[in-house]
Amino acid sequence: MRDITVFRARKFITMDPVRPAATHVAVRDGRILAVGGDEIWQGLGAARADDRYADAVLMPGLVEAHSHLMEGALWKFVYAGYYDRRDPEGRLWTGLKSVDGIVERLAEMERTLADPDAPLLAWGFDPVYFGEQRMTVRELDAVSERRPIVLLHASFHLMNVNSAMLRKAGITRQTDIEGIARHADGEPNGELQGFAAMFPVNRAIGNVMRTVGVTEEGVWRFARVAQRTGVTTATDLVNNLAEPGVRLLEDVTSREDYPLRIVPIYRGPQALATIEQDLGLAALAAARSTDKLRFGAMKLTLDGSITGYTARLRWPGYHNGKPNGIWIMSPTEVHGVVARIHGAGVQLHIHTNGDEATGLALDAIEAALEKHPRPDHRHTLHHCQTADAAQFRRMARLGVCANLFVNHIYYWGDVHYAQTLGPSRANRMNACGTARLHGVPLAIHSDAPVTPIGPLFTAWCAAVRRTAGGRVLGEGERITVADALHAVTLGAAYTLAMDGEIGSIEVGKRADFCVLADDPLAVPVEDLKDVPVLGTMLGGRAFDAAQ
Amino acid sequence: MNVSPIPLTVIGGFLGAGKSTLVNRLLAQAGDSRVTVLVNDFGAINIDAALIESRDGETISLANGCVCCSIGDDLVDALIRAMERQPAPDRIVIEASGVADPWRIAQVGLSDPALRLDSVVVLADAETVRAHAADRYLADTIRGQLRAGDYLILNKADLVTAESLAATRGWLAATCPDTPIFIASDADVPFVFLADAGLSAWPAGAMHACGCPAGRPCRHEQAHGELFESWSIELAGRFRADALRAWLRALPAGVLRTKGLVATDEWPWAVMHGVGRRGTLACAAPPISARSAIVAIGLRGQLPIAELDAFFRGARLAD
Fold it and tell me: Does the predicted TM-score (pTM) go above 0.80?
């Protein structure tokens, strides 16, 4: 006789529309055996009652369908972001609201480093919040004149360094390239922008901020950051499937005390020339999938980001007149690559920030579907921040899912309103309401580490649509809390083609729960993001958030 | 210890323009120099199996000392690994992706003191470049790439009619004024566009007219022997560094490459590199000879010899 445990809770929010709430859930072999009231005891035989959640509200384990493993590893470096953020160990790093505050934190961390020559590395800086205040070599030299210091921006495409780092990297006033910002007198001011300007620094520090993701410690810390916010399944939304990394993930996720299911999405081909190899590699990985590690899908990246002005926009382009963005993958290859991957039966996750890129992705999917009709492909457009209603109608018609980057509304909504998109398009960005209206399967995401992982916060963004500056962007695009919670559970699971096993509390599914102190459907919508997460359960095994 | 910087060449151009073919030629014909090429994917590079010495995941080593590395998903990482190889490469060549702006990549040769940007060579497909430049998705990408080139190679000339080739050449010249254009088929591009190996052989005469080192047969001699000519001069006295810099910022039309080891009023000795439309001046170790030496290469009949002569004679200090 195998063990059966009956969990009783104040409430289970099931995400099953025909039985939206329950008080009892029976679990056997890590899966849900029964859902209901106390009638579920009938005929169960010998079962153990577990009342530890008697006062709590349980939801399906939350699903973060667009994040990166790097989130865990970045915490090796000093957090210097504007917003409060919790590290894997649960320590709250308060957001730094002034340049002085950043200097103070860096100085404090600097004193803890034993080796006087080891570089001090920090991340999360975003100059957009500091108005007239400037971060330059002068400020960072105040932290240390001797120790090299690197302050990576939240976008990961810029950095600020101090004089010691400039010297170490060999960047001087004679270094004549565009990406080196300067003081009025022509001396580099320490801000370095883009690949070429940042390269000598990255080389000097061993490129650690990029390669840090795939370590045992990084994979563990990723799970801790995610688990703390109620997440039980998270994606690594671009993984190169290099053998050491795959083996590491196999090893770590197979541990019973590892509290997360990971879905690595393979960095797909850039061109048709190599597609057969790529499909082969993805298929080999797919065969190694387990219940906690799910390979198989592929990612294509079509364009860049809106805040970096690298997203491909249609008319009328960027609000402030900047030139259109860049293609990461050639538009001429998109049709062929999509057709081949689609034809091979593989699911596609396609990064399209700008609406021109979204349109191209939809053209390619439509053409592929005409050639190879394929029901239930679950191809998903990621970010998809500037799609209009017609594009959402096309998605619905083609069976394409949308995973929208609603955290952008809070973090950069004011920038989009004033600079990148202007009021009209900022109001319709990340159009959850339009997606729901047209029946597009919907997920929402954090893109951690770009913004912090935390599906309840993400759901709050979708329900409230308020910027950090307090402006509501497009009230009509708000969705209900119930719909927002669906988008971070069953909706997200659907985009990962895992809705048959996770995302709702139904018989036969995995016993993955998010344990909350309060009912997110009952609290004022404003408090949704602050509902305390007490812990998670993964396959019937409990993990406290405090762990 | 001050190690001399590694020359960097970036090969750009849209998909199908012939970048991989050019990389293949380069790997097979690099001769005595150890070239490390960073490519987007091995799949597109068709290296003769007989040349391959060993293969290890991201890297293919050739018997002639050249190495071909896959960029994978991080150019930063790939470039660091290439620079750290032992023995150090004599030259690094980056094959930009088909939609990348090669200039964005090439600037790393100006920002990192361990590298020296040699040239940005951009290929254009004679069959398709004009259509792509008019495409609603591609127009800005294609024009950006072409304008990034120190040299433009109008490739696949054999696949179009003479009229079409002339029209495309005219269009290229109008799109990218002052950029030298070389017409090629099968990406058969003289070495001088990719590297200054020949120019570094002193005295200046120690090379074929196409830029290949002297002392062994050059395969271009037959095909392109009539295409190039060179000019060189040795002069006593010191040059005005400012005058050299100003000249290097706007190289006269007809000069494909120029290189010099010159005595100046700023540094005792400086090395001068000019490529296509642009050049640099950097501090250098003193040569054995006490005289400054300058060499330039151009297409036959287009090298402005009188102008070169007059400029360098006049750019010295009065002392």
Answer: yes
